[in-house]
Write a structure and sequence with these properties.
The complex is a heterodimer.
Chain A lengths: L4 E3 L2 E4 L5 E6 L6 E7 L5 E8 L2 E5 L7 E4 L6 E5 L8 E8 L8 E2 L3 E5 L1
Parallel strand pairs in A: 2-11
Antiparallel strand pairs in A: 1-3, 3-8, 4-5, 4-9, 5-6, 7-8, 9-10, 9-11
Chain B lengths: L3 E4 L2 E5 L4 E7 L5 E7 L5 E7 L2 E5 L2 E6 L4 E6 L8 E8 L6 E2 L3 E6 L1
Classes of the chains: A mainly beta, B mainly beta.
């Protein structure tokens, strides 16, 4: 079964550093998403991406964050100047316009800011 | 306010038992999703519903649009079903709003 691949699985970074989280969505999917889950809390929507541009973003997705689909296969989330509160699990997801189950999620990147 | 409430928060069952997890939401939605989060953190999409009922193996999901309520049922539960089950709804914008999850433990 096709998978959404995320790398790295775990990243530790110093506060103030920039990080790039990478995702390879399923090849025929058209919609791409980033979510985050702070430990012990609900999953939260960050941003959706369609047709090479952001289609929706949440209040969390401020100027510190950016997304890019640089080469038609990868989908990246960049966090500039990381803060301690950015420590969370970040999930990438993708979907086709209509799918029986909806979204396919990656296995997540656990980001730890120290 | 667009809220998603799940119950119960925690559920322990014996192997073979029939499981029901509930999800209620506050306003009209365009779609409801049931997700499974494994102990390692990975998320699997189980169902996407906008009406009626769907079945996949031992899992059944139902939604009542008028009552703003959905249920996820697991028949003949097994220890491998132990996970956190999350209800997520799309109210409109932005994307999805997630419930807090139901932690299911199935004992052999």
């Amino acid at each position: 079964e096709p998978e959404v691949t995320q790398t790295p699985s775990h990243q530790v970074t110093q506060m103030g550093q920039e990080v790039i989280l990478r995702c390879v969505p399923i090849s025929n999917h058209l919609y791409f998403y980033w979510y985050r889950q702070i430990l012990g809390q609900k999953v939260e929507f960050l941003v959706s991406f369609y047709n090479n541009e952001i289609s929706e973003k949440s209040e969390i997705f401020d100027d510190q964050f950016s997304v890019e689909r640089p080469d038609g296969s990868n989908f990246t989330l960049k966090i500039r100047s990381t803060k301690l509160e950015d420590s969370a699990m970040y999930f990438c997801a993708s979907r086709t316009p209509r799918g029986a189950r909806g979204y396919t999620f990656g296995s997540g990147t656990r980001l730890t800011v120290v | 306010k667009n809220e998603v409430e799940q119950s119960p928060q925690n559920l322990t069952a014996q192997e073979g038992e029939f499981i029901t997890i509930n999800c209620s939401y506050s306003v009209g939605i365009s779609a409801l999703h049931w997700l499974q989060q494994h102990p390692g953190g990975g998320i699997v999409s189980l169902f996407m519903l906008s009406s009626g009922k769907k079945k996949h193996g031992r899992l059944i999901a139902t939604i009542n649009i008028q009552e703003k309520h959905s249920s996820l049922h697991i028949t003949a539960s097994h220890p491998r079903d132990s996970a956190v089950y999350i209800c997520a709804v799309r109210f409109g914008r932005p994307d999805m709003r997630f419930g807090a999850g139901t932690r299911l433990t199935v004992k052999p």
